[in-house]
Each structure stands twice: as structure tokens, then as C-alpha cells.
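This part of the workshop introduces the protein records we will be handling. A record pairs a protein's sequence with a compact description of its fold. As an example, a complete record with its sequence and its C-alpha cells follows.

_____
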Amino acid sequence: MRGRSKKILFGIGIVVVILAIVYTVALMRAKAQLREAYAALEQDGRPLSIDDVLPPAVPDQQNAAVLYEKAAAMLQAEPSEEEDNLLEELQRLARALFEETTNPDRLARQQQDVARLKQRMTQDVVTTALDLVEQGTQRPACRFEHDQEIGLLDDKPVSNRMRTLVVALGARARLEAEAGDLQKAWDTIQTQLRFGHTLRHDPIALDPWIRFAATGHACRVIKHVCEIAPPDEQDYQAIEQLLATADDVEQFVRCLDAERLSRGEGIFSLPADELYEALREYQTSFGGGGPEFFDRLVFRKITFAPTFIADHAAYLQVMRKSVQMLEGPFVSRDAPQFQEIGTLTRRYGLTGRLAPYSSGMKYIHSRATADLRMVRAGLALLRFKRLHDAFPPALDALELEDLIDPFDGKPLRYRPQAQGFVVYSVDEDQKDNGGTTRQRNQKTDYDRVWRFGTPDAQADVKS
């Protein structure tokens, strides 16, 4: 019996030694992967410290963010009958103004919402708040407070507030144009574009999407207002100047770098108890709100040292590859880069939670760039028509640079049509579909289109 016990203990010892060796090898391998990931970022010239992406401190008198936050706070403090506060109500009502629907019930509700929006826009508190935003766009810098709690949830309160101000400005411009006050409408559109420009100064406090939303929403408003009356020469020149550099990819690269350094590195450096609470808050992917015992088991698996370090390395690789994709030409979703990122986000728990959309930034940027360039082309076409009493045969006559489709690297497609024009991008499928507008739930064979001055022009305004 004693000999058998010795054999059992010896066997257990062998197993323990083997497990220790396996653990040590796995740990060393994970650490090597992490070192390699950092070395690759350094070789690419990417920032490795949060201080490298933090905007400099700004005196309050020069800081646009102070006025933007004051405007949002004023609206947030105002009660609302249908929402928690006026800020939230304005966001819903402004979105209703731009909604395209044929459903009779929804159409009736939309008409009620638009009537209420018109009333709200005349209130002193709304007028004062939007005037504060306009004043903020005249300031030289924009820096928000950066002491937000680190978490896995993407939503950022500052972004929500700024998003509401974006759509409120767009609603004001459209309502002004529909009321016949076109100069005010074009002035408000310029404010909206400057607002988007100043928001790019701060890559930390806002989520990536708000940087696209501000200028993108302004482009949508421009299409609507042009159907009423194009801008005059002075407004055209001002808007062209604001749009000409709005597609600069470096601002979005900075945004990904800031996301990696502020949120990603912050999560991986959290103490165990704080990381557990962050995961518990992110319940949709961590236990689904189930028993804590199950969450603890999942947490142990995620934070097992070799796995956790390899997860960290995978996250850095994903963010590096996402930046490389953002800086390079557009590629389809079946390209090797997408497959590599997909493999890493599926394999590693925290990477999948922290970077589920980073690779999609290239599509978002390409879509926003296409919209910007189509609007630049369309405005220049309308100017050409005003000066020459006819649309040109080709976009070359506009003498504008960078009217290139970001999806295939070729010039934007254009043709004069009836009393208007069609200008379009081939979009994600990279096929020229002749200016076919996307229909609901359509997956392929459509383009991103601005169709001006034709019977179905309004159907393309939303594209």
C-alpha cells in the first residue's frame, strides 16, 4: 500500500511539474507576444503613452467645450413631458424631422413630432443653447474633461450630449430653410460644420462615431436645403473651405490611438476587482446577468495570466491592424486583414469586447468621405450651373481636387440628368450600379447617391 501511495504521489508530482512547465511556457510565450505587439506599434510610429494623445490644457476663455457643455446642461436641466429632459426630447424630435416613412401611423406621429419640434425651437432656452454652440465654434480649441470612469461600455455621456446638439443644429437649419430664411439656414449649416471640426480637437472624451456624425449630418442637411435653394457664392466658398479637409484620415487614426491608450490599456491595467465589476456591468456578454458563481468562473478564465496577457497582445494587434486598414485603400470584408482581425476578436474575450468595431472604422470613414466628396461635387455643380446656365459634361470642369471615390480609388461617377444631376460612389461592393439607390434591407448592387433636381431626388437625400 505504501508503495502504491508513493507511485500516486510521484504521478501527481509529475503532473504538477508538467502543468507548471506548460504554464511557464505559455506565460513566457504570451509575454513575448505582448512585447512583439508593443515593438510593432513603436516601429509603426504609433503613440505608446496617453500623454502623447491628450490635447493640451486650454484656458476656459478659449475652450469651446466649456460652452458646448453649458449648452447641453441648460437643455438637460429643462423638464420634458415625454422624455427625461429637453435634451433627450430634442434628439428624438430632430431625428423625426429627417425620418423617411410611408407608414400612415408613423407618418401621423412624425407630423406631430415636427410640429412640437417647431415649438421647441422657438423657446428661449433652446435658442440660447444653440447660440452658445455657435459661440463655441469661434473658439480656437476644444478639450473636454477626461476623468471619465473606464469601462467596457461604448456609450460616453459627452458623446450623447454632443450628438443631440449636432442633430438640433441640423433641424434648425432645415426648418429655417423651409420657412424661407435661407441665409440663416446656410449660416446654421456652417455652424454645424465648424462644430464638427472643433470636436475633432479632442480624441479622448468622445466616441469615434460622433466625429463622423457631425459633418455627415451637415451633409445630409445641405442636400435638403439645396433642393430649396443652393448657397450663394460667399456661402459656397465658406462651406467648400470647411468640407475640403473634413475627410482627413489622420484625425480618425488619432481617435483609434486614443481609444487604445485611454480605454483599452486602461481596462488591461485595472485591478482584478475593478475589472470584474466592469465585466459585470457589461452583462450582455458576461454571464447575461446570471448567477455570480458563473460570472466568477468566466472571470477566472479571462484573467488566467497566460490567456490574459495573450488577450492584451491580441488587442494591440487588432488596433494596429485597424489603423493600417484605416490608412490604406478600402478592402472588402473578405480580405485577409478582416479575417485576421475577426480571428483575434473571436478567440480572445476582452479583445472581442474592446474592439468589435475597430476594423469597421475604414468603412465608416470611406462612407463619410464619399458623402463629403459628393456634397462638394454637388455644390460645385450647382455653382457651375449658376455661372454658366448649364451643368458641365464632366466633373473635371469643376477644377476641384480629391473628388475621388474612396471605395475604388476612381473619380466619383456623375451625369447631368433632366434639370439636375446624379453624382455617386460605388459604395462597399465596389461595383458601379449606375447610381442605384439602396433600398431597405438591400445587401449589394447599390451605390451611395446624391440625385438632385429629379422627381425621386428626395429619396436619395437620405443616402
In short: The longest helix spans residues 2-43.
